[in-house]
Amino acid sequence: MAYEPPKQSFAGQIFDVITLLVLTIGALYIPLYLGLAGAAKVPDPIPDPTWEALGQNATEQQQWVALGITDPAAANDIITARFDYSFSWTSLIVMAVLVIGYFVMVVRLSDREYREVIEERFGTKRR
Amino acid sequence: MDDTTSAAAEPDRLRLLRVLGPAHVWALGVGIVLVGEYMGWNFSVGKGGMIAGLMACWVAGLLYTCVAMIDSEVTSTVAAAGGQYAQAKHIVGPLMAFNVGLFLVMAYTMLEAANAITVGFLLDTVAGMRGQAGLNQQPFIVLAIMFLAWLNYRGVLATLTFNLVITAIAFLAIVALFVSVQFGASAVPLDFSAITSDPLPYGWLGIVASLHFGLWYYLGIEGTCQAAEEVRSPARSLPYGTMAGIMTLLIAATMTWYICSGLMPWEYLGQAGTPLFDAARVTGSTGLMVLLFVGTAFATLASANGCINDASRAWFSMSRDRYLPSWFGAVHPVYRTPYRAIVFLVPIALIFALGAPLDQVVTFSILSGLLGYTFMTFNMVMFRNKWPLGKIKRGYVHPFHPLPTVVLLILCSTAYFAVFLGYGTQLSAMMCFYIVASLWFHFRRYKFVRRGDQFTMPWPKPHGY
Question: Is the Cβ–Cβ distance between A109 and B440 less than 8 Å?
Fold first, then answer.
């Protein structure tokens, strides 16, 4: 006999939608909102900047001016900002385990569900 | 029982209209993605330098060629609304399908938010040039999202025809800028001296890191198959539209890198909000500035438009299968669109568009896309194993299997590392989100799902079951 799912009430449907919304906003938006996540790009401004000291040739200086930035001091942070790509191998391994573990978990649990689907569609339980 | 063929159990219900051709598929794919040339890709230059940006462009192009090849085969065979979601349902299982549906919704909704942010930023830039600095961007962000949601609510044909026109204009604007600069229209010459003076500011690690935003050049091309149920001839239109889209984007991406890298210092380019419009500003030509303003506005609107279309189809499909509350699975009685799904996703897009920085929103979109591409690798292998060639009728068979799958997996692994470099926190947050959502689905939501209804293709029983 085919599996007959329970009928979900309207309130239950609302509850499930709110759960997903809370999950989305809680996991993704709040860390951004609180400034806990961000690009690790840090400016390292030089004192008394000139275009030459900032490593900008004559054409690049023209380009900065055309972009509305005529004062080297205004470009100081942009030019000197760099990402910090140093990382610990431990955090890289943790990240790899997280990604691989996630896919392994999803595929295994999916397979369990898929067998029920196939059994009902093709097997003795076919409606 | 292996030869038993599943009856395509399709209960009587209001269906989506089959009105789209290959040109609409091209417009849907390129329309969503072309904005990647107008903003976001340039952060790859910021992460690795000028050369790294170009290498990221090409390596990402290779990744997406693999995606398009794989996707064309599976989608031309599993021609149902929801695209990769429907594929996962038939090939891997319900939980994977739920996750793929969420990848699509999150990738497209975040991309939609990024587009709206760019519209606001563009208008603010132009207002600043006109001496009206400090424009409040928020009303324009809200207006853009609400207008496009309304357009989607009213009908898919009008929506994608609108996309076809504005995408073509946005693409021609890039070509016009490229040709004009080549013929000396720029007041400032092209300068590629940074290639020799500062070739790899972060070394080889920068090349890997830049792949993160290199994906942005093409992210969303797989969206072509979201409209599979609304395409007149999926087996023909989807591969044609998708592969033509990838070729269009490879050309546009290379031209974009060339012009922008030549007209702007890489340090500026690496953090610019609207790089092609900025390149037009550097030329000093008012005509080009207007053209690229229009191009940027159209590209962002076309992309957001396609994103609403695709995200709502994925949400609609999940709801129709009860992976999400079935209330969202309704089709509008007059416009025949998934109107409740369209409306529901509007506030989520607004929250991120109004409250999160562009690079973070872009990163969330990229990560969801990346998870989806990773899924495609084992999905393709399982598809060929469960239904070997000749077992079922395929609209298109991609060549050199499993080479595209292996290349895609290697490039996806590299891209995870690229995101980890500089944006590891977002990667963690995203993985935690999907793990918790998966557990929620398996232990709470799955009980509402009708098992047998999850397999609707008229195929024989999969090998090994």
Answer: no
Residue A6 belongs to a domain: no
Q: In this structure, are A49 and A78 located in the same domain?
A: yes
Confirm whether A31 is domain-assigned.
yes
What's the token pair of residue B291?
A: 């053209």
Distance CA A28, CA A113 (A): 28
CB B344 within 8 A of CB B191: no
DSSP string, B251-319: HHHHHHHHHHHHHS-HHHHTT-SSHHHHHHHHHT-HHHHHHHHHHHHHHHHHHHHHHHHHHHHHHHHHH
User: What's the domain range around A93?
Assistant: 87-122
Asked if ipTM goes beyond 0.95, one says no
Distance between CA atoms of B465 and B455, rounded to whole angstroms?
Answer: 14
Yes or no: say if B353 and B141 are a contact pair by the CB < 8 Å rule: yes
- Number of structural domains found in chain A: 3
Contact B270, B47 (CB under 8 A): yes
Is B269 near chain A, with CB under 8 Å?
A: no
Residues A97 and A80 in one domain: no
CA dist., res. B458 & res. A122, Å (int):
11
Contact B465 A115 (CB under 8 A): yes
Same domain, A57 and A92: no
Please check whether residues A24 and A52 belong to one and the same domain.
Answer: no
- Contact yes or no for A37 and B426 at CB 8 A: yes
Record the tokens describing residue B316, joined without a space.
């609609």
Task: Determine, yes or no, domain membership for A4.
Answer: no
**Residue A3 is assigned to a structural domain of this protein:** no
Query: Hey, are the CB atoms on A3 and B357 less than 8 Å from each other?
Result: no
CB-CB: which of B92, B357, B437 is closest to A107?
A: B92
* pLDDT tens sequence for chain B (465 residues): 344 454 444 444 556 667 677 777 887 778 778 888 998 899 999 999 999 999 998 899 899 889 988 888 888 788 666 678 889 999 999 999 999 999 999 998 998 999 999 999 999 999 998 888 889 999 999 999 999 899 888 877 777 777 778 888 999 999 999 999 999 899 999 999 888 888 899 999 999 999 999 998 888 787 776 666 677 777 777 778 887 888 888 888 889 999 999 999 999 999 999 999 999 999 999 999 999 999 999 999 888 888 898 899 889 989 989 999 988 888 898 888 899 999 999 999 999 999 888 888 888 899 999 999 999 999 999 999 999 999 998 878 888 999 999 999 999 999 999 999 888 888 888 999 999 999 999 999 999 999 999 998 889 999 998
pTM: 0.88
